[in-house]
Amino acid sequence: MKRILVTGGAGFIGSNFIHYLLSHFQTVECLVNLDLLTYAGNLENLQTVEKDPRYHLVQGDIRDKVLVGKLFVEYRFDTVVHFAAESHVDRSIVEPEIFLTTNIIGTQTLLDAAISCWKLEPDNKYSREYRADVKYLQVSTDEVYGALGKIGMFTENTPLAPNSPYSASKASADMVVRAYHMTYGIPVNITRCSNNYGPYQFPEKLIPLMIHNAQQDKPLPVYGDGMQIRDWLHVRDHCAAICTVLEKGHAGEIYNIGGNNEKANLEIIRLILSELGKPESLIQYVQDRPGHDRRYAIDNAKIVAELGWTPVYTFEQGIRETIRWYLQHSDWVSRITSGEYQNYYRKMYSAAKV
Ligand code: NAD
Ligand code: TYD
Protein backbone atom coordinates (compact mmCIF):
# COMPACT_ATOMS: atom_id res chain seq x y z
CA MET A 1 0.00 0.00 0.00
CA LYS A 2 1.41 3.39 -1.00
CA ARG A 3 1.33 6.73 0.81
CA ILE A 4 1.85 9.43 -1.78
CA LEU A 5 2.59 13.15 -1.72
CA VAL A 6 1.49 14.86 -4.94
CA THR A 7 2.51 18.52 -5.20
CA GLY A 8 0.61 20.88 -7.48
CA GLY A 9 -2.31 18.47 -7.70
CA ALA A 10 -4.83 21.25 -8.38
CA GLY A 11 -3.10 22.22 -11.62
CA PHE A 12 -3.56 20.76 -15.08
CA ILE A 13 -1.36 17.65 -15.04
CA GLY A 14 -1.48 17.16 -11.27
CA SER A 15 -5.28 16.98 -11.18
CA ASN A 16 -5.38 14.56 -14.12
CA PHE A 17 -2.76 12.47 -12.30
CA ILE A 18 -4.80 12.35 -9.08
CA HIS A 19 -7.88 11.20 -11.02
CA TYR A 20 -5.78 8.62 -12.84
CA LEU A 21 -4.07 7.27 -9.74
CA LEU A 22 -7.19 7.00 -7.58
CA SER A 23 -9.18 5.30 -10.34
CA HIS A 24 -6.48 2.87 -11.52
CA PHE A 25 -4.64 1.88 -8.33
CA GLN A 26 -6.21 0.12 -5.36
CA THR A 27 -2.73 0.11 -3.83
CA VAL A 28 -3.00 3.82 -2.91
CA GLU A 29 -3.67 4.02 0.81
CA CYS A 30 -3.29 7.78 1.21
CA LEU A 31 -2.78 10.64 -1.25
CA VAL A 32 -1.99 14.15 -0.04
CA ASN A 33 -2.24 17.00 -2.52
CA LEU A 34 0.00 19.90 -1.40
CA ASP A 35 -0.95 22.91 -3.49
CA LEU A 36 -0.63 26.63 -2.87
CA LEU A 37 -3.66 27.29 -5.10
CA THR A 38 -2.03 30.01 -7.17
CA TYR A 39 -3.92 31.36 -10.19
CA ALA A 40 -3.20 27.99 -11.88
CA GLY A 41 -4.58 25.80 -9.08
CA ASN A 42 -8.29 25.04 -9.31
CA LEU A 43 -10.13 22.83 -6.83
CA GLU A 44 -12.97 22.44 -9.30
CA ASN A 45 -10.66 20.04 -11.17
CA LEU A 46 -10.85 17.69 -8.18
CA GLN A 47 -14.51 17.87 -7.20
CA THR A 48 -15.15 14.21 -8.02
CA VAL A 49 -12.34 12.93 -5.76
CA GLU A 50 -12.96 15.22 -2.77
CA LYS A 51 -15.01 12.60 -0.94
CA ASP A 52 -12.58 9.75 -1.54
CA PRO A 53 -11.31 8.86 1.96
CA ARG A 54 -7.81 8.32 0.58
CA TYR A 55 -7.57 11.92 -0.68
CA HIS A 56 -6.41 14.86 1.48
CA LEU A 57 -5.90 18.45 0.36
CA VAL A 58 -3.34 20.67 2.09
CA GLN A 59 -3.21 24.27 0.90
CA GLY A 60 0.40 25.35 1.35
CA ASP A 61 3.69 26.27 -0.21
CA ILE A 62 6.34 23.73 -1.24
CA ARG A 63 8.93 26.31 -0.11
CA ASP A 64 7.58 26.19 3.47
CA LYS A 65 10.15 23.94 5.21
CA VAL A 66 8.21 23.64 8.45
CA LEU A 67 4.98 22.65 6.74
CA VAL A 68 6.65 20.18 4.38
CA GLY A 69 8.61 18.59 7.24
CA LYS A 70 5.41 18.24 9.32
CA LEU A 71 3.52 16.61 6.45
CA PHE A 72 6.24 14.00 5.96
CA VAL A 73 6.07 13.09 9.67
CA GLU A 74 2.27 13.13 9.87
CA TYR A 75 1.49 11.20 6.69
CA ARG A 76 4.58 8.94 6.47
CA PHE A 77 4.90 9.29 2.68
CA ASP A 78 6.83 6.67 0.75
CA THR A 79 6.41 8.37 -2.65
CA VAL A 80 6.65 11.96 -3.86
CA VAL A 81 5.43 13.04 -7.30
CA HIS A 82 6.48 16.65 -7.69
CA PHE A 83 4.40 18.64 -10.20
CA ALA A 84 4.07 21.99 -8.40
CA ALA A 85 5.69 24.74 -10.40
CA GLU A 86 5.27 28.06 -12.08
CA SER A 87 4.74 26.61 -15.53
CA HIS A 88 4.06 29.29 -18.16
CA VAL A 89 6.96 30.50 -20.32
CA ASP A 90 5.31 33.85 -21.14
CA ARG A 91 4.85 34.68 -17.45
CA SER A 92 8.48 33.71 -16.78
CA ILE A 93 9.64 36.33 -19.29
CA VAL A 94 7.74 39.07 -17.45
CA GLU A 95 8.33 37.88 -13.86
CA PRO A 96 11.26 35.42 -13.58
CA GLU A 97 11.89 35.57 -9.83
CA ILE A 98 8.96 33.48 -8.66
CA PHE A 99 9.97 30.80 -11.19
CA LEU A 100 13.37 30.49 -9.57
CA THR A 101 12.10 30.37 -6.00
CA THR A 102 9.15 28.03 -6.59
CA ASN A 103 10.77 25.71 -9.08
CA ILE A 104 14.26 25.45 -7.56
CA ILE A 105 13.93 26.16 -3.82
CA GLY A 106 10.61 24.30 -3.69
CA THR A 107 12.33 21.22 -5.11
CA GLN A 108 15.17 21.46 -2.60
CA THR A 109 12.70 21.78 0.29
CA LEU A 110 10.91 18.58 -0.73
CA LEU A 111 14.18 16.68 -1.21
CA ASP A 112 15.49 17.74 2.22
CA ALA A 113 12.30 16.57 3.93
CA ALA A 114 12.34 13.27 2.00
CA ILE A 115 15.95 12.60 2.97
CA SER A 116 15.41 13.27 6.65
CA CYS A 117 12.40 10.91 6.76
CA TRP A 118 13.57 8.19 4.40
CA LYS A 119 17.28 7.81 5.25
CA LEU A 120 17.91 4.95 7.66
CA GLU A 121 20.55 7.00 9.53
CA PRO A 122 19.56 10.61 8.87
CA ASP A 123 22.32 12.10 11.05
CA ASN A 124 25.14 10.15 9.38
CA LYS A 125 26.37 12.17 6.40
CA TYR A 126 28.17 9.14 4.95
CA SER A 127 25.15 6.85 5.06
CA ARG A 128 23.41 6.22 1.74
CA GLU A 129 20.90 3.60 2.95
CA TYR A 130 17.20 4.33 2.49
CA ARG A 131 13.95 2.56 3.23
CA ALA A 132 13.39 0.03 0.45
CA ASP A 133 9.91 1.30 -0.52
CA VAL A 134 10.61 4.99 -1.20
CA LYS A 135 10.89 7.08 -4.36
CA TYR A 136 11.01 10.76 -5.32
CA LEU A 137 9.84 11.60 -8.85
CA GLN A 138 10.63 14.99 -10.38
CA VAL A 139 8.28 16.02 -13.18
CA SER A 140 10.44 17.97 -15.59
CA THR A 141 10.14 19.09 -19.19
CA ASP A 142 11.77 18.67 -22.59
CA GLU A 143 12.29 22.45 -22.56
CA VAL A 144 15.43 21.93 -20.44
CA TYR A 145 17.16 20.66 -23.62
CA GLY A 146 16.60 23.96 -25.46
CA ALA A 147 15.58 24.11 -29.11
CA LEU A 148 16.09 21.75 -32.06
CA GLY A 149 16.67 22.64 -35.68
CA LYS A 150 14.81 20.84 -38.48
CA ILE A 151 16.29 17.44 -37.66
CA GLY A 152 17.16 15.38 -34.57
CA MET A 153 15.36 14.57 -31.33
CA PHE A 154 16.02 15.03 -27.62
CA THR A 155 17.41 11.95 -25.89
CA GLU A 156 18.16 11.71 -22.18
CA ASN A 157 21.81 12.45 -23.08
CA THR A 158 21.14 15.69 -24.94
CA PRO A 159 23.01 18.48 -23.11
CA LEU A 160 20.82 20.91 -21.19
CA ALA A 161 20.52 24.32 -22.86
CA PRO A 162 17.44 26.09 -21.50
CA ASN A 163 16.40 29.31 -23.25
CA SER A 164 13.67 30.81 -21.05
CA PRO A 165 13.61 31.68 -17.34
CA TYR A 166 11.01 28.90 -16.98
CA SER A 167 13.15 26.23 -18.61
CA ALA A 168 16.27 27.48 -16.79
CA SER A 169 14.46 27.06 -13.47
CA LYS A 170 13.35 23.54 -14.42
CA ALA A 171 16.86 22.61 -15.58
CA SER A 172 18.28 23.96 -12.32
CA ALA A 173 15.79 21.89 -10.31
CA ASP A 174 16.79 18.79 -12.32
CA MET A 175 20.43 19.48 -11.44
CA VAL A 176 19.53 19.73 -7.75
CA VAL A 177 17.68 16.39 -7.93
CA ARG A 178 20.63 14.78 -9.68
CA ALA A 179 23.11 16.20 -7.15
CA TYR A 180 21.01 14.97 -4.21
CA HIS A 181 20.95 11.50 -5.73
CA MET A 182 24.72 11.51 -6.33
CA THR A 183 25.61 13.00 -2.92
CA TYR A 184 23.02 11.57 -0.55
CA GLY A 185 21.93 8.48 -2.50
CA ILE A 186 18.20 9.33 -2.39
CA PRO A 187 16.28 7.17 -4.91
CA VAL A 188 14.96 9.54 -7.57
CA ASN A 189 13.70 9.59 -11.11
CA ILE A 190 13.40 12.59 -13.39
CA THR A 191 10.82 12.50 -16.18
CA ARG A 192 11.02 14.97 -19.06
CA CYS A 193 7.85 15.20 -21.09
CA SER A 194 6.80 17.15 -24.13
CA ASN A 195 3.83 19.55 -24.31
CA ASN A 196 0.74 18.04 -22.70
CA TYR A 197 -2.84 18.61 -23.82
CA GLY A 198 -6.19 17.44 -22.48
CA PRO A 199 -8.88 18.40 -19.93
CA TYR A 200 -8.33 21.00 -17.17
CA GLN A 201 -5.49 22.95 -18.83
CA PHE A 202 -5.45 26.62 -17.88
CA PRO A 203 -6.40 28.71 -20.95
CA GLU A 204 -3.13 30.63 -21.03
CA LYS A 205 -1.54 27.69 -22.90
CA LEU A 206 -1.85 27.28 -26.67
CA ILE A 207 -4.63 24.72 -27.14
CA PRO A 208 -7.22 25.83 -24.53
CA LEU A 209 -6.49 29.50 -25.28
CA MET A 210 -7.14 29.05 -29.00
CA ILE A 211 -10.33 27.02 -28.38
CA HIS A 212 -11.60 29.67 -25.97
CA ASN A 213 -10.84 32.61 -28.29
CA ALA A 214 -12.24 30.85 -31.37
CA GLN A 215 -15.45 30.03 -29.53
CA GLN A 216 -15.84 33.70 -28.66
CA ASP A 217 -14.88 34.90 -32.17
CA LYS A 218 -11.85 36.68 -30.69
CA PRO A 219 -8.50 36.95 -32.54
CA LEU A 220 -6.16 33.96 -32.19
CA PRO A 221 -2.70 35.40 -31.36
CA VAL A 222 -0.03 33.45 -33.29
CA TYR A 223 3.54 34.19 -32.27
CA GLY A 224 5.92 34.95 -35.16
CA ASP A 225 5.24 32.81 -38.22
CA GLY A 226 3.37 30.08 -36.29
CA MET A 227 5.70 27.40 -37.65
CA GLN A 228 7.22 26.48 -34.28
CA ILE A 229 6.89 22.77 -33.59
CA ARG A 230 5.85 21.02 -30.38
CA ASP A 231 5.59 17.26 -29.77
CA TRP A 232 2.13 16.79 -28.23
CA LEU A 233 1.41 14.25 -25.50
CA HIS A 234 -2.06 13.47 -24.17
CA VAL A 235 -2.09 14.17 -20.44
CA ARG A 236 -3.48 10.66 -19.66
CA ASP A 237 -0.61 9.06 -21.56
CA HIS A 238 1.68 11.22 -19.44
CA CYS A 239 -0.03 10.05 -16.22
CA ALA A 240 0.34 6.41 -17.28
CA ALA A 241 4.02 6.99 -18.03
CA ILE A 242 4.61 8.50 -14.58
CA CYS A 243 2.98 5.47 -12.95
CA THR A 244 5.21 3.20 -15.03
CA VAL A 245 8.32 5.09 -13.90
CA LEU A 246 7.16 4.94 -10.27
CA GLU A 247 6.73 1.19 -10.54
CA LYS A 248 9.68 0.19 -12.70
CA GLY A 249 12.09 3.14 -13.07
CA HIS A 250 15.67 2.51 -11.97
CA ALA A 251 16.92 4.86 -9.24
CA GLY A 252 18.84 7.85 -10.56
CA GLU A 253 17.54 7.47 -14.12
CA ILE A 254 15.99 10.11 -16.37
CA TYR A 255 13.14 9.12 -18.70
CA ASN A 256 11.91 11.19 -21.65
CA ILE A 257 8.16 10.94 -22.27
CA GLY A 258 6.79 11.96 -25.66
CA GLY A 259 3.77 11.25 -27.80
CA ASN A 260 5.47 11.10 -31.24
CA ASN A 261 3.18 13.90 -32.40
CA GLU A 262 5.15 16.77 -33.87
CA LYS A 263 2.85 19.54 -35.04
CA ALA A 264 3.40 23.15 -36.08
CA ASN A 265 1.35 25.62 -34.04
CA LEU A 266 -0.51 26.84 -37.14
CA GLU A 267 -1.55 23.30 -38.01
CA ILE A 268 -3.18 22.92 -34.60
CA ILE A 269 -4.82 26.34 -34.75
CA ARG A 270 -6.29 25.59 -38.19
CA LEU A 271 -7.60 22.25 -36.95
CA ILE A 272 -9.29 23.94 -33.98
CA LEU A 273 -10.89 26.54 -36.27
CA SER A 274 -12.14 23.87 -38.62
CA GLU A 275 -13.54 21.70 -35.79
CA LEU A 276 -15.39 24.74 -34.42
CA GLY A 277 -16.55 25.87 -37.86
CA LYS A 278 -14.79 29.23 -37.48
CA PRO A 279 -13.01 31.25 -40.21
CA GLU A 280 -9.21 31.42 -40.56
CA SER A 281 -9.56 35.20 -40.62
CA LEU A 282 -9.57 34.96 -36.80
CA ILE A 283 -5.82 34.18 -36.95
CA GLN A 284 -3.82 37.23 -35.90
CA TYR A 285 -0.04 37.17 -36.24
CA VAL A 286 1.57 38.93 -33.28
CA GLN A 287 5.13 39.71 -32.22
CA ASP A 288 7.18 36.59 -31.52
CA ARG A 289 7.98 35.43 -27.99
CA PRO A 290 11.55 36.50 -27.05
CA GLY A 291 13.89 33.47 -27.05
CA HIS A 292 11.13 31.36 -28.64
CA ASP A 293 12.27 27.72 -29.06
CA ARG A 294 11.71 26.68 -32.67
CA ARG A 295 11.21 22.95 -32.31
CA TYR A 296 10.90 20.26 -29.64
CA ALA A 297 10.85 16.53 -30.39
CA ILE A 298 11.22 13.73 -27.86
CA ASP A 299 12.94 10.43 -28.51
CA ASN A 300 11.06 8.14 -26.12
CA ALA A 301 12.97 4.95 -27.02
CA LYS A 302 14.36 4.51 -23.49
CA ILE A 303 11.06 4.40 -21.60
CA VAL A 304 9.49 2.26 -24.34
CA ALA A 305 12.32 -0.28 -24.46
CA GLU A 306 13.28 -0.39 -20.77
CA LEU A 307 9.96 0.09 -19.00
CA GLY A 308 7.42 -1.00 -21.62
CA TRP A 309 5.33 2.20 -21.71
CA THR A 310 3.81 3.43 -24.98
CA PRO A 311 1.36 6.26 -25.66
CA VAL A 312 -2.12 5.08 -26.59
CA TYR A 313 -3.71 8.32 -27.86
CA THR A 314 -3.34 9.33 -31.48
CA PHE A 315 -3.24 13.11 -31.81
CA GLU A 316 -6.31 13.06 -34.07
CA GLN A 317 -8.39 11.25 -31.44
CA GLY A 318 -6.94 13.17 -28.47
CA ILE A 319 -7.37 16.66 -29.91
CA ARG A 320 -10.98 16.03 -30.99
CA GLU A 321 -11.85 14.67 -27.53
CA THR A 322 -10.08 17.64 -25.96
CA ILE A 323 -11.92 20.22 -28.08
CA ARG A 324 -15.20 18.49 -27.17
CA TRP A 325 -14.25 18.57 -23.47
CA TYR A 326 -13.67 22.34 -23.53
CA LEU A 327 -16.94 22.92 -25.38
CA GLN A 328 -18.82 20.79 -22.84
CA HIS A 329 -17.11 22.55 -19.91
CA SER A 330 -17.60 26.16 -20.98
CA ASP A 331 -18.74 27.01 -17.41
CA TRP A 332 -15.37 25.77 -16.07
CA VAL A 333 -13.59 27.95 -18.63
CA SER A 334 -15.81 30.98 -17.96
CA ARG A 335 -15.18 30.85 -14.22
CA ILE A 336 -11.40 30.92 -14.63
CA THR A 337 -11.32 33.43 -17.46
CA SER A 338 -13.33 36.06 -15.62
CA GLY A 339 -11.60 38.45 -13.20
CA GLU A 340 -7.80 38.34 -12.99
CA TYR A 341 -7.44 36.45 -16.30
CA GLN A 342 -8.74 39.54 -18.15
CA ASN A 343 -5.90 41.65 -16.70
CA TYR A 344 -3.37 38.95 -17.57
CA TYR A 345 -4.65 38.76 -21.14
CA ARG A 346 -4.53 42.52 -21.67
CA LYS A 347 -1.00 42.74 -20.21
CA MET A 348 0.35 39.81 -22.25
CA TYR A 349 -1.17 40.55 -25.62
CA SER A 350 -1.77 44.31 -25.91
CA ALA A 351 1.90 45.04 -26.66
CA ALA A 352 2.33 42.04 -28.96
CA LYS A 353 0.47 43.28 -32.05
CA VAL A 354 2.53 43.55 -35.26
P1 NAD B 1 0.01 24.19 -13.79
O1 NAD B 1 0.55 25.58 -13.88
O2 NAD B 1 -1.30 23.88 -14.44
O3 NAD B 1 -0.15 23.78 -12.24
C1 NAD B 1 0.84 24.07 -11.30
C2 NAD B 1 0.23 23.81 -9.92
O4 NAD B 1 1.27 24.06 -8.95
C3 NAD B 1 -0.95 24.71 -9.56
O5 NAD B 1 -1.98 23.95 -8.98
C4 NAD B 1 -0.36 25.69 -8.55
O6 NAD B 1 -1.32 26.17 -7.61
C5 NAD B 1 0.72 24.83 -7.89
N1 NAD B 1 1.79 25.63 -7.29
C6 NAD B 1 2.48 26.67 -7.83
N2 NAD B 1 3.37 27.16 -6.96
C7 NAD B 1 3.27 26.40 -5.83
C8 NAD B 1 3.94 26.39 -4.58
N3 NAD B 1 4.90 27.30 -4.31
N4 NAD B 1 3.60 25.48 -3.66
C9 NAD B 1 2.62 24.57 -3.91
N5 NAD B 1 1.94 24.54 -5.08
C10 NAD B 1 2.25 25.44 -6.03
O7 NAD B 1 1.16 23.24 -14.33
P2 NAD B 1 1.06 21.91 -15.20
O8 NAD B 1 0.90 22.28 -16.62
O9 NAD B 1 0.07 21.02 -14.57
O10 NAD B 1 2.53 21.35 -15.02
C11 NAD B 1 2.83 20.46 -13.96
C12 NAD B 1 4.30 20.13 -14.00
O11 NAD B 1 4.63 19.53 -15.26
C13 NAD B 1 5.23 21.34 -13.87
O12 NAD B 1 6.32 20.98 -13.08
C14 NAD B 1 5.66 21.62 -15.30
O13 NAD B 1 6.94 22.22 -15.33
C15 NAD B 1 5.68 20.23 -15.89
N6 NAD B 1 5.44 20.17 -17.34
C16 NAD B 1 4.29 20.64 -17.88
C17 NAD B 1 4.07 20.53 -19.24
C18 NAD B 1 2.78 20.99 -19.87
O14 NAD B 1 2.63 20.84 -21.09
N7 NAD B 1 1.83 21.50 -19.13
C19 NAD B 1 5.05 19.97 -20.08
C20 NAD B 1 6.22 19.52 -19.49
C21 NAD B 1 6.41 19.60 -18.12
P1 TYD C 1 2.59 27.10 -24.73
O1 TYD C 1 1.28 26.41 -24.66
O2 TYD C 1 2.79 28.36 -23.97
O3 TYD C 1 3.70 26.00 -24.33
P2 TYD C 1 5.33 26.08 -24.42
O4 TYD C 1 5.74 27.48 -24.64
O5 TYD C 1 5.73 25.58 -23.08
O6 TYD C 1 5.70 25.17 -25.54
O7 TYD C 1 2.93 27.40 -26.25
C1 TYD C 1 2.97 26.38 -27.22
C2 TYD C 1 3.38 27.01 -28.55
O8 TYD C 1 2.37 27.93 -28.96
C3 TYD C 1 4.65 27.83 -28.43
O9 TYD C 1 5.41 27.69 -29.65
C4 TYD C 1 4.16 29.27 -28.31
C5 TYD C 1 2.90 29.26 -29.14
N1 TYD C 1 1.84 30.22 -28.70
C6 TYD C 1 1.31 31.13 -29.61
O10 TYD C 1 1.69 31.17 -30.80
N2 TYD C 1 0.35 32.01 -29.16
C7 TYD C 1 -0.07 32.01 -27.86
O11 TYD C 1 -0.93 32.85 -27.50
C8 TYD C 1 0.48 31.05 -26.95
C9 TYD C 1 0.03 31.01 -25.52
C10 TYD C 1 1.43 30.17 -27.42
Give short descriptive properties of this protein:
354 residues, alpha/beta, two-stranded parallel sheet, 12 helices, 13 strands, globular, binds nicotinamide-adenine-dinucleotide, binds thymidine-5'-diphosphate
What are the segments in which pLDDT stays under 50 over at least 5 consecutive residues? none
Strand content: 15-25%
Structural class: alpha/beta
Distance between the termini: 56 Å
Mean pLDDT: 97
Count of runs of 4 or more consecutive helical residues: 12
* Hetero ligands: nicotinamide-adenine-dinucleotide, thymidine-5'-diphosphate
Largest sheet: 7 strands, parallel
Order of helices and strands: EHEEHEHHEHEEHEEEHEEHEHHHH
Rg, please? 20 Å
Q: What spatial form do the alpha-carbon principal axes imply? A: globular
Descriptive account of the structure:
- There is one protein chain.
- The chain has helices spanning 12-24, 65-75, 89-94, 97-118, 165-184, 206-215, 235-248, 265-276, 301-307, 315-328, 330-337, 340-349; strands spanning 2-7, 28-35, 55-59, 79-82, 135-141, 188-193, 196-197, 220-223, 229-231, 233-234, 254-257, 262-264, 283-286.
- It is α/β, with parallel strands linked by helices and 354 residues long.
- The strands form 4 sheets. The protein has a 7-stranded parallel β-sheet, with helices on both faces.
- Helix 5 links the parallel strand 5 (135-141) and strand 6 (188-193).
- Helix 1 (12-24) packs across helix 7 (235-248).
- The longest helix has 22 residues, at 97-118.
- It is globular and about 65 Å long.
- It starts with a strand and ends in a 5-residue tail after the last helix.
- The structure holds nicotinamide-adenine-dinucleotide and thymidine-5'-diphosphate.
- Residues 89, 195, 205-206, 209, 221-223, 228, 230, 265, 289 line the site of thymidine-5'-diphosphate (TYD).
